[in-house]
Protein backbone atom coordinates (compact mmCIF):
# COMPACT_ATOMS: atom_id res chain seq x y z
CA UNK A 1 0.00 0.00 0.00
CA UNK A 2 3.02 2.26 -0.49
CA UNK A 3 1.11 3.97 -3.33
CA UNK A 4 -1.02 5.75 -0.74
CA UNK A 5 1.84 7.13 1.35
CA UNK A 6 2.30 10.54 -0.35
CA UNK A 7 -1.46 11.13 -0.32
CA UNK A 8 -1.89 9.97 3.29
CA UNK A 9 0.92 12.32 4.26
CA UNK A 10 -0.98 15.13 2.56
CA UNK A 11 -4.28 14.13 4.19
CA UNK A 12 -2.77 13.95 7.68
CA UNK A 13 -1.58 17.53 7.43
CA UNK A 14 -5.10 18.28 8.66
CA UNK A 15 -4.78 15.87 11.58
CA UNK A 16 -6.63 18.28 13.90
CA UNK A 17 -9.77 18.17 11.79
CA UNK A 18 -9.41 14.42 11.30
CA UNK A 19 -9.21 13.82 15.05
CA UNK A 20 -12.24 16.01 15.75
CA UNK A 21 -14.20 14.22 13.00
CA UNK A 22 -13.23 10.82 14.40
CA UNK A 23 -14.27 11.89 17.91
CA UNK A 24 -17.66 13.03 16.62
CA UNK A 25 -18.06 9.68 14.89
CA UNK A 26 -17.07 7.90 18.13
CA UNK A 27 -19.59 9.90 20.16
CA UNK A 28 -22.28 8.99 17.62
CA UNK A 29 -21.47 5.27 17.81
CA UNK A 30 -21.20 5.19 21.61
CA UNK A 31 -24.45 7.14 21.97
CA UNK A 32 -26.20 4.61 19.72
CA UNK A 33 -24.80 1.64 21.64
CA UNK A 34 -25.61 3.24 24.99
CA UNK A 35 -29.14 4.01 23.83
CA UNK A 36 -29.68 0.39 22.80
CA UNK A 37 -28.15 -1.05 25.98
CA UNK A 38 -29.90 1.29 28.40
CA UNK A 39 -33.25 0.86 26.63
CA UNK A 40 -32.87 -2.92 26.86
CA UNK A 41 -31.98 -2.69 30.55
CA UNK A 42 -34.92 -0.35 31.24
CA UNK A 43 -37.47 -2.47 29.37
CA UNK A 44 -36.31 -5.62 31.15
CA UNK A 45 -36.36 -3.92 34.54
CA UNK A 46 -39.88 -2.56 34.06
CA UNK A 47 -41.10 -5.95 32.84
CA UNK A 48 -39.69 -7.73 35.89
CA UNK A 49 -41.14 -5.13 38.26
CA UNK A 50 -44.51 -5.49 36.55
CA UNK A 51 -44.41 -9.29 36.99
CA UNK A 52 -43.51 -8.94 40.66
CA UNK A 53 -46.33 -6.48 41.26
CA UNK A 54 -48.76 -8.76 39.42
CA UNK A 55 -47.66 -11.62 41.71
CA UNK A 56 -48.41 -9.51 44.80
CA UNK A 57 -44.80 -8.85 45.73
CA UNK A 58 -43.44 -5.49 46.67
CA UNK A 59 -41.24 -3.90 44.00
CA UNK A 60 -40.20 -0.49 42.82
CA UNK A 61 -38.34 1.10 39.93
CA UNK A 62 -36.69 4.47 39.43
CA UNK A 63 -38.21 5.73 36.19
CA UNK A 64 -36.47 9.08 36.11
CA UNK A 65 -32.75 8.29 36.00
CA UNK A 66 -32.85 5.63 33.24
CA UNK A 67 -35.56 7.59 31.41
CA UNK A 68 -33.36 10.69 31.51
CA UNK A 69 -30.42 8.62 30.32
CA UNK A 70 -32.40 7.30 27.37
CA UNK A 71 -33.46 10.81 26.39
CA UNK A 72 -29.88 12.04 26.77
CA UNK A 73 -28.41 9.35 24.53
CA UNK A 74 -31.20 9.79 21.97
CA UNK A 75 -30.51 13.52 21.75
CA UNK A 76 -26.70 13.13 21.87
CA UNK A 77 -26.83 10.54 19.08
CA UNK A 78 -28.95 12.82 16.88
CA UNK A 79 -26.85 15.93 17.57
CA UNK A 80 -23.53 14.09 17.21
CA UNK A 81 -24.69 12.49 13.96
CA UNK A 82 -25.67 15.88 12.55
CA UNK A 83 -22.44 17.56 13.66
CA UNK A 84 -20.38 14.63 12.39
CA UNK A 85 -21.98 14.74 8.96
CA UNK A 86 -21.63 18.51 8.58
CA UNK A 87 -18.09 18.65 9.98
CA UNK A 88 -16.75 15.63 8.14
CA UNK A 89 -18.33 16.65 4.83
CA UNK A 90 -16.57 19.99 5.20
CA UNK A 91 -13.34 18.13 6.00
CA UNK A 92 -13.73 16.00 2.87
CA UNK A 93 -14.16 19.14 0.75
CA UNK A 94 -11.01 20.64 2.26
CA UNK A 95 -9.08 17.40 1.66
CA UNK A 96 -10.37 17.40 -1.91
CA UNK A 97 -9.02 20.92 -2.33
CA UNK A 98 -5.64 19.93 -0.86
CA UNK A 99 -5.32 16.89 -3.12
CA UNK A 100 -6.31 18.73 -6.30
CA UNK A 101 -4.05 21.70 -5.55
CA UNK A 102 -1.14 19.34 -4.83
CA UNK A 103 -1.86 17.46 -8.05
CA UNK A 104 -2.02 20.67 -10.10
CA UNK A 105 1.23 21.86 -8.52
CA UNK A 106 2.94 18.61 -9.49
CA UNK A 107 1.53 18.79 -13.00
CA UNK A 108 2.68 22.40 -13.35
CA UNK A 109 6.22 21.55 -12.21
CA UNK A 110 6.47 18.47 -14.44
CA UNK A 111 7.22 18.48 -18.13
CA UNK A 112 5.11 16.86 -20.81
CA UNK A 113 7.33 13.77 -20.65
CA UNK A 114 6.59 13.38 -16.93
CA UNK A 115 2.88 13.97 -17.48
CA UNK A 116 2.81 10.96 -19.77
CA UNK A 117 1.17 12.49 -22.83
CA UNK A 118 -2.33 11.61 -21.65
CA UNK A 119 -5.41 12.70 -23.57
CA UNK A 120 -7.86 15.24 -22.19
CA UNK A 121 -10.36 12.49 -21.38
CA UNK A 122 -7.72 10.55 -19.43
CA UNK A 123 -6.66 13.60 -17.44
CA UNK A 124 -10.32 14.40 -16.76
CA UNK A 125 -10.60 10.96 -15.18
CA UNK A 126 -7.42 11.59 -13.18
CA UNK A 127 -8.68 14.92 -11.85
CA UNK A 128 -12.17 13.67 -10.97
CA UNK A 129 -12.60 9.96 -10.34
CA UNK A 130 -9.06 9.23 -9.15
CA UNK A 131 -8.95 12.24 -6.85
CA UNK A 132 -12.43 11.46 -5.50
CA UNK A 133 -11.21 7.96 -4.66
CA UNK A 134 -8.52 9.45 -2.41
CA UNK A 135 -10.31 12.20 -0.54
CA UNK A 136 -12.49 9.95 1.67
CA UNK A 137 -9.95 7.23 2.46
CA UNK A 138 -9.61 8.46 6.05
CA UNK A 139 -13.31 8.88 6.78
CA UNK A 140 -14.41 5.72 4.92
CA UNK A 141 -11.56 3.33 5.74
CA UNK A 142 -9.11 4.42 8.42
CA UNK A 143 -11.40 6.11 10.95
CA UNK A 144 -14.29 3.55 10.82
CA UNK A 145 -11.87 0.62 11.15
CA UNK A 146 -10.07 2.25 14.07
CA UNK A 147 -13.35 3.12 15.80
CA UNK A 148 -14.67 -0.41 15.25
CA UNK A 149 -11.62 -1.76 17.08
CA UNK A 150 -12.07 0.78 19.88
CA UNK A 151 -15.80 0.13 20.36
CA UNK A 152 -15.22 -3.64 20.26
CA UNK A 153 -12.58 -3.37 23.00
CA UNK A 154 -14.94 -1.25 25.11
CA UNK A 155 -17.59 -3.99 24.89
CA UNK A 156 -15.01 -6.67 25.68
CA UNK A 157 -14.05 -4.66 28.78
CA UNK A 158 -17.73 -4.39 29.72
CA UNK A 159 -18.06 -8.18 29.35
CA UNK A 160 -15.06 -8.63 31.62
CA UNK A 161 -16.40 -6.28 34.32
CA UNK A 162 -20.10 -7.23 34.23
CA UNK A 163 -19.96 -10.90 33.26
CA UNK A 164 -16.76 -12.94 33.32
CA UNK A 165 -13.25 -13.13 31.90
CA UNK A 166 -14.13 -16.26 29.93
CA UNK A 167 -17.00 -14.51 28.18
CA UNK A 168 -14.78 -11.49 27.50
CA UNK A 169 -12.19 -13.70 25.80
CA UNK A 170 -14.90 -15.41 23.74
CA UNK A 171 -16.43 -12.10 22.65
CA UNK A 172 -12.96 -10.77 21.80
CA UNK A 173 -12.20 -13.81 19.60
CA UNK A 174 -15.53 -13.63 17.76
CA UNK A 175 -15.32 -9.85 17.25
CA UNK A 176 -11.71 -10.12 16.05
CA UNK A 177 -12.71 -12.71 13.46
CA UNK A 178 -15.70 -10.61 12.35
CA UNK A 179 -13.50 -7.52 12.07
CA UNK A 180 -10.89 -9.45 10.10
CA UNK A 181 -13.53 -10.64 7.62
CA UNK A 182 -15.01 -7.15 7.28
CA UNK A 183 -11.62 -5.51 6.61
CA UNK A 184 -8.47 -7.44 5.76
CA UNK A 185 -10.14 -10.50 4.26
CA UNK A 186 -12.53 -8.61 1.99
CA UNK A 187 -9.67 -6.33 0.89
CA UNK A 188 -7.47 -9.31 0.00
CA UNK A 189 -10.27 -11.01 -1.92
CA UNK A 190 -11.39 -7.93 -3.86
CA UNK A 191 -8.14 -6.02 -4.45
CA UNK A 192 -7.43 -7.41 -7.95
CA UNK A 193 -11.11 -7.10 -8.93
CA UNK A 194 -11.42 -3.59 -7.52
CA UNK A 195 -8.21 -2.46 -9.25
CA UNK A 196 -9.46 -3.95 -12.55
CA UNK A 197 -12.83 -2.23 -12.05
CA UNK A 198 -11.10 1.11 -11.49
CA UNK A 199 -9.06 0.69 -14.68
CA UNK A 200 -12.14 -0.40 -16.66
CA UNK A 201 -14.17 2.56 -15.42
CA UNK A 202 -11.40 4.98 -16.38
CA UNK A 203 -11.13 3.47 -19.86
CA UNK A 204 -14.91 3.55 -20.31
CA UNK A 205 -15.16 7.19 -19.21
CA UNK A 206 -12.46 8.18 -21.67
CA UNK A 207 -14.06 6.23 -24.50
CA UNK A 208 -17.48 7.77 -23.84
CA UNK A 209 -16.00 11.27 -23.87
CA UNK A 210 -14.17 10.55 -27.12
CA UNK A 211 -17.38 9.09 -28.57
CA UNK A 212 -19.22 12.34 -27.79
CA UNK A 213 -16.38 14.51 -29.09
CA UNK A 214 -16.15 12.52 -32.32
CA UNK A 215 -19.89 11.98 -32.80
CA UNK A 216 -20.03 14.09 -35.96
CA UNK A 217 -17.16 12.15 -37.55
CA UNK A 218 -18.66 8.80 -36.50
CA UNK A 219 -22.00 9.83 -37.99
CA UNK A 220 -20.36 10.90 -41.24
CA UNK A 221 -18.55 7.56 -41.44
CA UNK A 222 -21.70 5.58 -40.56
CA UNK A 223 -19.98 4.05 -37.52
CA UNK A 224 -22.15 5.49 -34.74
CA UNK A 225 -24.10 2.29 -34.07
CA UNK A 226 -21.06 0.01 -34.11
CA UNK A 227 -19.09 2.30 -31.82
CA UNK A 228 -22.06 2.60 -29.45
CA UNK A 229 -22.36 -1.19 -29.42
CA UNK A 230 -18.69 -1.48 -28.55
CA UNK A 231 -19.21 0.96 -25.67
CA UNK A 232 -22.16 -1.10 -24.43
CA UNK A 233 -20.02 -4.23 -24.39
CA UNK A 234 -17.44 -2.38 -22.32
CA UNK A 235 -20.17 -1.16 -19.97
CA UNK A 236 -21.46 -4.73 -19.50
CA UNK A 237 -17.93 -5.86 -18.67
CA UNK A 238 -17.66 -3.10 -16.07
CA UNK A 239 -21.03 -4.12 -14.62
CA UNK A 240 -19.93 -7.75 -14.32
CA UNK A 241 -16.77 -6.77 -12.49
CA UNK A 242 -18.76 -4.44 -10.24
CA UNK A 243 -21.20 -7.24 -9.45
CA UNK A 244 -18.32 -9.55 -8.46
CA UNK A 245 -16.89 -6.89 -6.13
CA UNK A 246 -20.32 -6.22 -4.60
CA UNK A 247 -20.92 -9.95 -4.20
CA UNK A 248 -17.67 -10.41 -2.30
CA UNK A 249 -18.42 -7.41 -0.09
CA UNK A 250 -21.96 -8.69 0.53
CA UNK A 251 -20.85 -12.18 1.53
CA UNK A 252 -18.19 -10.88 3.89
CA UNK A 253 -20.68 -8.46 5.43
CA UNK A 254 -23.19 -11.29 5.88
CA UNK A 255 -20.65 -13.56 7.60
CA UNK A 256 -19.35 -10.76 9.85
CA UNK A 257 -22.94 -9.91 10.81
CA UNK A 258 -23.57 -13.58 11.54
CA UNK A 259 -20.51 -13.63 13.81
CA UNK A 260 -21.70 -10.56 15.70
CA UNK A 261 -25.05 -12.30 16.24
CA UNK A 262 -23.13 -15.36 17.42
CA UNK A 263 -21.39 -13.14 19.98
CA UNK A 264 -24.84 -11.95 21.10
CA UNK A 265 -26.03 -15.55 21.57
CA UNK A 266 -22.86 -16.46 23.47
CA UNK A 267 -23.25 -13.43 25.72
CA UNK A 268 -26.92 -14.25 26.32
CA UNK A 269 -26.16 -17.91 27.04
CA UNK A 270 -23.31 -17.06 29.41
CA UNK A 271 -25.41 -14.38 31.09
CA UNK A 272 -28.25 -16.85 31.62
CA UNK A 273 -25.86 -19.20 33.43
CA UNK A 274 -24.66 -16.40 35.66
CA UNK A 275 -28.27 -15.36 36.29
CA UNK A 276 -29.18 -18.86 37.44
CA UNK A 277 -26.20 -18.79 39.77
CA UNK A 278 -27.44 -15.53 41.23
CA UNK A 279 -24.37 -13.60 40.10
CA UNK A 280 -26.26 -11.41 37.64
CA UNK A 281 -29.60 -9.60 37.63
CA UNK A 282 -32.06 -9.91 34.75
CA UNK A 283 -31.73 -6.35 33.46
CA UNK A 284 -27.91 -6.57 33.44
CA UNK A 285 -28.21 -9.91 31.63
CA UNK A 286 -29.62 -8.23 28.48
CA UNK A 287 -27.32 -5.22 28.71
CA UNK A 288 -24.30 -6.74 26.90
CA UNK A 289 -26.17 -8.74 24.20
CA UNK A 290 -28.15 -5.68 23.12
CA UNK A 291 -24.99 -3.53 23.11
CA UNK A 292 -23.30 -6.19 20.95
CA UNK A 293 -26.18 -5.93 18.49
CA UNK A 294 -25.14 -2.31 18.01
CA UNK A 295 -21.82 -3.56 16.60
CA UNK A 296 -23.69 -4.61 13.47
CA UNK A 297 -24.06 -0.93 12.55
CA UNK A 298 -20.36 -0.35 13.24
CA UNK A 299 -19.15 -3.32 11.19
CA UNK A 300 -21.68 -2.89 8.37
CA UNK A 301 -19.85 0.14 6.91
CA UNK A 302 -16.50 -1.67 6.63
CA UNK A 303 -16.83 -4.37 3.90
CA UNK A 304 -17.95 -1.98 1.17
CA UNK A 305 -15.20 0.53 2.01
CA UNK A 306 -12.46 -2.12 2.08
CA UNK A 307 -13.81 -3.72 -1.10
CA UNK A 308 -13.20 -0.39 -2.86
CA UNK A 309 -9.77 0.09 -1.30
CA UNK A 310 -8.11 -1.81 -4.16
CA UNK A 311 -9.55 0.73 -6.61
CA UNK A 312 -8.33 3.58 -4.41
CA UNK A 313 -4.80 2.13 -4.43
CA UNK A 314 -5.03 1.74 -8.21
CA UNK A 315 -6.07 5.39 -8.53
CA UNK A 316 -3.15 6.47 -6.34
CA UNK A 317 -0.78 4.37 -8.43
CA UNK A 318 -1.96 6.03 -11.64
CA UNK A 319 -1.50 9.48 -10.18
CA UNK A 320 1.94 8.59 -8.83
CA UNK A 321 3.04 7.13 -12.17
CA UNK A 322 1.98 10.14 -14.19
CA UNK A 323 3.06 12.93 -11.85
CA UNK A 324 5.89 11.91 -9.55
CA UNK A 325 6.79 14.23 -6.63
CA UNK A 326 10.09 15.94 -7.20
CA UNK A 327 10.31 15.05 -10.88
CA UNK A 328 12.76 17.11 -12.94
CA UNK A 329 12.47 18.48 -16.42
CA UNK A 330 15.00 16.53 -18.41
CA UNK A 331 18.22 18.54 -18.66
CA UNK A 332 16.73 21.70 -17.24
CA UNK A 333 19.05 23.27 -14.68
CA UNK A 334 17.59 25.07 -11.64
CA UNK A 335 17.90 28.79 -12.19
CA UNK A 336 20.30 30.28 -9.65
CA UNK A 337 21.52 33.86 -10.21
CA UNK A 338 25.13 32.94 -9.52
CA UNK A 339 24.94 30.12 -12.12
CA UNK A 340 23.69 32.21 -15.01
CA UNK A 341 25.77 35.31 -14.28
CA UNK A 342 23.24 38.09 -14.78
CA UNK A 343 21.43 36.34 -17.63
CA UNK A 344 17.74 35.51 -17.63
CA UNK A 345 18.14 32.55 -20.01
CA UNK A 346 20.98 30.36 -21.24
CA UNK A 347 20.51 27.60 -23.85
CA UNK A 348 23.42 25.47 -24.97
CA UNK A 349 23.27 23.09 -27.95
CA UNK A 350 19.54 22.63 -27.34
CA UNK A 351 17.30 20.26 -29.30
CA UNK A 352 13.56 20.63 -28.81
CA UNK A 353 10.55 18.62 -29.94
CA UNK A 354 7.75 16.39 -28.73
CA UNK A 355 8.18 12.88 -27.39
CA UNK A 356 8.25 10.26 -30.14
CA UNK A 357 8.83 12.84 -32.88
CA UNK A 358 11.89 14.25 -34.59
CA UNK A 359 13.43 17.39 -33.12
CA UNK A 360 11.99 20.62 -34.53
CA UNK A 361 15.05 22.65 -33.55
CA UNK A 362 18.49 21.09 -33.14
CA UNK A 363 21.77 22.31 -31.61
CA UNK A 364 20.26 25.71 -30.80
CA UNK A 365 22.14 28.08 -28.49
CA UNK A 366 20.84 31.38 -27.12
CA UNK A 367 21.57 33.75 -24.25
CA UNK A 368 19.19 36.47 -23.04
CA UNK A 369 20.50 38.96 -20.51
CA UNK A 370 18.40 40.31 -17.67
CA UNK A 371 16.32 43.24 -18.94
CA UNK A 372 17.00 42.37 -22.60
CA UNK A 373 14.29 42.38 -25.29
CA UNK A 374 14.42 39.54 -27.84
CA UNK A 375 12.08 38.98 -30.78
CA UNK A 376 11.77 35.55 -32.41
CA UNK A 377 10.15 35.47 -35.84
CA UNK A 378 9.26 32.45 -37.91
CA UNK A 379 6.61 30.92 -40.11
CA UNK A 380 4.08 28.39 -38.85
CA UNK A 381 5.79 25.12 -38.03
CA UNK A 382 9.21 26.69 -37.57
CA UNK A 383 9.22 25.70 -33.90
CA UNK A 384 8.45 29.00 -32.14
CA UNK A 385 5.81 27.65 -29.75
CA UNK A 386 7.80 24.45 -29.13
CA UNK A 387 10.81 26.56 -28.19
CA UNK A 388 8.64 28.76 -25.95
CA UNK A 389 7.19 25.69 -24.23
CA UNK A 390 10.71 24.42 -23.60
CA UNK A 391 11.91 27.73 -22.17
CA UNK A 392 8.86 27.89 -19.91
CA UNK A 393 9.46 24.35 -18.66
CA UNK A 394 6.30 22.83 -20.12
CA UNK A 395 8.27 20.67 -22.53
CA UNK A 396 11.48 18.85 -21.65
CA UNK A 397 14.39 19.38 -24.05
CA UNK A 398 15.46 16.41 -26.14
CA UNK A 399 19.09 17.29 -25.71
CA UNK A 400 21.33 20.10 -24.57
CA UNK A 401 21.21 22.36 -21.54
CA UNK A 402 18.79 25.11 -20.54
CA UNK A 403 18.85 27.36 -17.48
CA UNK A 404 16.28 30.09 -16.96
CA UNK A 405 14.92 32.39 -14.30
CA UNK A 406 11.29 31.87 -13.24
CA UNK A 407 9.07 33.12 -16.03
CA UNK A 408 5.58 34.36 -16.87
CA UNK A 409 4.30 32.75 -20.08
CA UNK A 410 1.59 33.87 -22.50
CA UNK A 411 0.84 30.79 -24.56
CA UNK A 412 -0.30 30.89 -28.13
CA UNK A 413 -3.68 29.54 -27.05
CA UNK A 414 -6.01 32.00 -25.34
CA UNK A 415 -7.49 30.42 -22.21
CA UNK A 416 -10.23 32.29 -20.32
CA UNK A 417 -11.86 30.44 -17.44
CA UNK A 418 -15.58 30.38 -16.72
CA UNK A 419 -15.33 32.84 -13.87
CA UNK A 420 -15.13 36.54 -13.12
CA UNK A 421 -12.70 39.12 -14.48
CA UNK A 422 -11.10 39.33 -11.04
CA UNK A 423 -10.64 35.55 -10.71
CA UNK A 424 -9.09 35.29 -14.18
CA UNK A 425 -6.62 38.10 -13.48
CA UNK A 426 -5.65 36.92 -9.99
CA UNK A 427 -4.26 33.72 -11.51
CA UNK A 428 -1.34 35.88 -12.65
CA UNK A 429 -0.78 37.37 -9.19
CA UNK A 430 -3.06 36.22 -6.33
CA UNK A 431 -1.88 39.12 -4.14
CA UNK A 432 -2.76 41.86 -6.63
CA UNK A 433 -5.00 44.66 -5.32
CA UNK A 434 -8.05 46.00 -7.12
CA UNK A 435 -6.04 49.10 -8.04
CA UNK A 436 -3.40 46.94 -9.70
CA UNK A 437 -6.08 45.00 -11.57
CA UNK A 438 -7.60 48.20 -12.93
CA UNK A 439 -4.15 49.52 -13.83
CA UNK A 440 -3.27 46.47 -15.94
CA UNK A 441 -6.72 46.56 -17.58
CA UNK A 442 -6.06 50.17 -18.54
CA UNK A 443 -2.73 49.08 -19.96
CA UNK A 444 -4.45 46.75 -22.45
CA UNK A 445 -7.39 49.15 -22.97
CA UNK A 446 -9.98 46.93 -21.26
CA UNK A 447 -10.77 49.08 -18.22
CA UNK A 448 -13.62 50.96 -19.93
CA UNK A 449 -15.08 47.62 -21.05
CA UNK A 450 -15.76 46.61 -17.44
CA UNK A 451 -16.39 49.97 -15.75
CA UNK A 452 -19.64 50.02 -17.72
CA UNK A 453 -20.63 46.62 -16.30
CA UNK A 454 -22.74 46.50 -13.14
CA UNK A 455 -20.42 44.01 -11.41
CA UNK A 456 -17.22 45.64 -12.71
CA UNK A 457 -14.33 43.31 -11.68
CA UNK A 458 -16.85 40.67 -10.63
CA UNK A 459 -18.36 40.51 -14.11
CA UNK A 460 -18.97 36.91 -15.14
CA UNK A 461 -17.20 36.05 -18.40
CA UNK A 462 -19.21 32.97 -19.38
CA UNK A 463 -18.07 29.61 -20.65
CA UNK A 464 -14.49 29.92 -22.00
CA UNK A 465 -14.99 33.71 -21.89
CA UNK A 466 -17.73 33.68 -24.52
CA UNK A 467 -18.91 37.13 -23.42
CA UNK A 468 -15.69 38.56 -24.81
CA UNK A 469 -14.60 39.02 -28.41
CA UNK A 470 -11.46 37.24 -29.57
CA UNK A 471 -9.35 40.38 -29.23
CA UNK A 472 -10.77 41.20 -25.79
CA UNK A 473 -10.08 37.68 -24.56
CA UNK A 474 -6.50 37.89 -25.82
CA UNK A 475 -5.91 41.21 -24.10
CA UNK A 476 -7.40 39.88 -20.84
CA UNK A 477 -5.03 36.91 -20.88
CA UNK A 478 -2.16 39.26 -21.73
CA UNK A 479 -3.12 41.42 -18.72
CA UNK A 480 -3.05 38.30 -16.53
CA UNK A 481 0.54 37.55 -17.61
CA UNK A 482 1.61 41.18 -17.12
CA UNK A 483 0.47 41.02 -13.48
CA UNK A 484 3.10 38.39 -12.78
CA UNK A 485 6.36 39.98 -11.61
CA UNK A 486 8.63 37.20 -12.94
CA UNK A 487 12.05 38.35 -14.17
CA UNK A 488 11.54 36.59 -17.52
CA UNK A 489 8.41 37.12 -19.64
CA UNK A 490 7.60 34.98 -22.70
CA UNK A 491 4.91 36.27 -25.05
CA UNK A 492 3.85 33.93 -27.87
CA UNK A 493 1.79 35.84 -30.45
CA UNK A 494 0.67 38.45 -27.87
CA UNK A 495 -1.61 40.33 -30.27
CA UNK A 496 -3.55 37.48 -31.90
CA UNK A 497 -7.04 38.78 -32.72
CA UNK A 498 -6.15 42.35 -31.72
CA UNK A 499 -6.69 44.95 -34.45
CA UNK A 500 -3.65 46.87 -35.69
CA UNK A 501 -4.74 50.27 -34.27
CA UNK A 502 -5.23 48.86 -30.77
CA UNK A 503 -1.93 46.99 -31.03
CA UNK A 504 -0.07 50.18 -31.96
CA UNK A 505 -1.53 51.99 -28.94
CA UNK A 506 -0.97 49.35 -26.27
CA UNK A 507 2.41 47.93 -27.38
CA UNK A 508 4.49 50.94 -26.16
CA UNK A 509 2.60 50.94 -22.83
CA UNK A 510 3.27 47.24 -22.30
CA UNK A 511 6.91 47.76 -23.21
CA UNK A 512 7.26 50.44 -20.52
CA UNK A 513 5.42 48.22 -17.99
CA UNK A 514 7.97 45.42 -18.58
CA UNK A 515 10.99 47.70 -18.29
CA UNK A 516 13.82 46.04 -16.38
CA UNK A 517 12.63 42.51 -17.14
CA UNK A 518 13.84 40.15 -19.85
CA UNK A 519 11.19 39.70 -22.55
CA UNK A 520 11.08 37.06 -25.31
CA UNK A 521 8.37 37.84 -27.85
CA UNK A 522 7.46 35.38 -30.61
CA UNK A 523 5.40 36.00 -33.74
CA UNK A 524 5.02 35.48 -37.47
CA UNK A 525 6.47 38.89 -38.26
CA UNK A 526 8.12 41.92 -36.60
CA UNK A 527 4.82 43.82 -36.61
CA UNK A 528 3.30 41.21 -34.24
CA UNK A 529 6.00 41.74 -31.61
CA UNK A 530 6.79 44.24 -28.90
CA UNK A 531 9.69 46.59 -29.71
CA UNK A 532 12.84 44.44 -29.40
CA UNK A 533 16.54 45.02 -29.00
CA UNK A 534 17.24 42.43 -31.68
CA UNK A 535 15.29 39.79 -33.58
CA UNK A 536 16.08 36.15 -34.31
CA UNK A 537 14.62 34.40 -37.36
CA UNK A 538 13.69 30.70 -37.29
CA UNK A 539 13.54 28.83 -40.61
From TrEMBL:
One of its GO terms (molecular function) is ATPase-coupled lipid transmembrane transporter activity. The keyword Magnesium does not apply. GO terms for biological process: cell redox homeostasis; glutathione transmembrane transport. It is found in: Cell membrane. This is Thiol reductant ABC exporter, CydC subunit. It is a multi-pass membrane protein. Its main location: membrane. Keywords: ATP-binding, Membrane, Nucleotide-binding, Transmembrane, Transmembrane helix. It comes from the Bacteria. Residues 19-311 form the ABC transmembrane type-1 domain. The chain crosses the membrane at residues 20-41, 47-65, 137-161, 167-187, 254-272, 284-302. Residues 345-539 form the ABC transporter domain. Coiled coil: none annotated. NCBIfam families: CydC. GO terms for cellular component: plasma membrane.
Amino acid sequence: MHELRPWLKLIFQRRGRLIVGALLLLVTLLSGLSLLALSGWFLTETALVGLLLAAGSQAYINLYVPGGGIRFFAVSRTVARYLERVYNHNTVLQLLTDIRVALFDRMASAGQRERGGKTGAQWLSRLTADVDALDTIYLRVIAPAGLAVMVSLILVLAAWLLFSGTLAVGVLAICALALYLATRRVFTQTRPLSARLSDQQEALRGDVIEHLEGYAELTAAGRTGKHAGWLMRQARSVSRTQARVDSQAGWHQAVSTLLVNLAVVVALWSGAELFHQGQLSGPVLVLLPIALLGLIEVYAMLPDAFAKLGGTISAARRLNEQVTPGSKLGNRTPAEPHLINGNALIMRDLSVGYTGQAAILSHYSLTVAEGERLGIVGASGAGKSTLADTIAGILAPKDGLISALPCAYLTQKTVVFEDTVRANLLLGNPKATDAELWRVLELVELASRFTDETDRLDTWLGSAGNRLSGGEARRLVLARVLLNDAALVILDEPFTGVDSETRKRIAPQINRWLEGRAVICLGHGPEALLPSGHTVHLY
